[in-house]
Amino acid sequence: MSFSTFVTDKAGLQKMYEAIISKHETYAPVEKFGKYDYKKVSSLKECDPDSPIAETMSVKPLFFPRSSKIMKYEATSAGTSILETDQDPLTAQRVVLGVKHCDARGLQVLEAVNKWDYIDSDFLKRRENTVIFSARCDKAGTHCFCTSLDYDLENLDALDIAVVNGAEGKIYLQTRTERGETFLKEKLEKSTMYNVQSTNDESEMKKQYVAFAASFRLKMDYKDINEKMAKRFDSPAFEEASRNCVSCNTCAFICPTCHCFKISDEKIKDTGVRYKSYDSCNNVYFTLEAGGHNPRPAKYRRWRQRSMHKFVYYKERFGVNLCVGCGHCAISCPVNISIFDVVNHIASTPVGS
Ligand code: SF4
Ligand code: SF4
Fold first, then answer.
1. pTM tops 0.90
2. Residue nearest (by alpha carbon) to ligand 2 atom 6
3. How many percent of the chain have pLDDT more than 70?
């Protein structure tokens, strides 16, 4: 299937977004207390698809909820019965506006593990039924390093329709998947209100990308990091790197690619609720075994696991890094630890020191 590029302007794009919101279940970044989180919206006025990267939380919870109820049950001396189970509500198509490119890539990275040994059909169904409009940033944030990682940000197919700002108020819409192509063509066929024209001239998009790529403060050679980290499992530098960590797990909870979870039961008298909630390998109990042994009792071992999983193990198993360079872990860490700094520092130490 061939993919299309269209050009419009801000007014045309806004009309299209309004039409989408009125016809489809639509989610977009909504501001609350200075942060943007993806919420269901009923009007464009409620949200900002151009929300700033540093203040925008990941779209991941729309696909892998932070905490979801698996079932409610009754357990008495007579036996256990299930009172209700959560039905996945996502049977119809939905649209998400304003997803950052790195964040969309995070969903693509997660797909690999979600269709590996255990098939998470809820995650896969949610992605299958979602059309992602992705707003490419114009400028890198202080902690961003997405252009340094193992994906082609300029031609990313983790999103369905890329929205890119051009010169003189032009806005480009480029389909990147079959789902995006079908969705956008149908929208455009039904209305002439969006001031949209087809174009083959993608030079403005290229210029925007070149300026964007030049705006990065942080750059890394991920292949070099992969190779060097793989040889530094025993590096004492992990101890120093994790010294200030308070094991709050914030870095994992806000990360677009972290996917550890726990199953917990909350029971009052005979009635219980079972939840699936985010967890983190930074939690001291995460690897605690029933017999009392914990292979990662020390902070440095847990931080080693976090960085090795992201830059060595996941890459070995699935061919991609478990990090998309969004920088959110560094932005949110209460003690200012940055994964970019940690892996660059560990990689720079001599083997065995
Ligand atoms: S590890 Fe940090 S920079 Fe990498 S994807 Fe997760 S939050 Fe973003
Ligand atoms: S956010 Fe910072 S302090 Fe909290 S677990 Fe992560 S590295 Fe440690």
1. yes
2. 251
3. 99
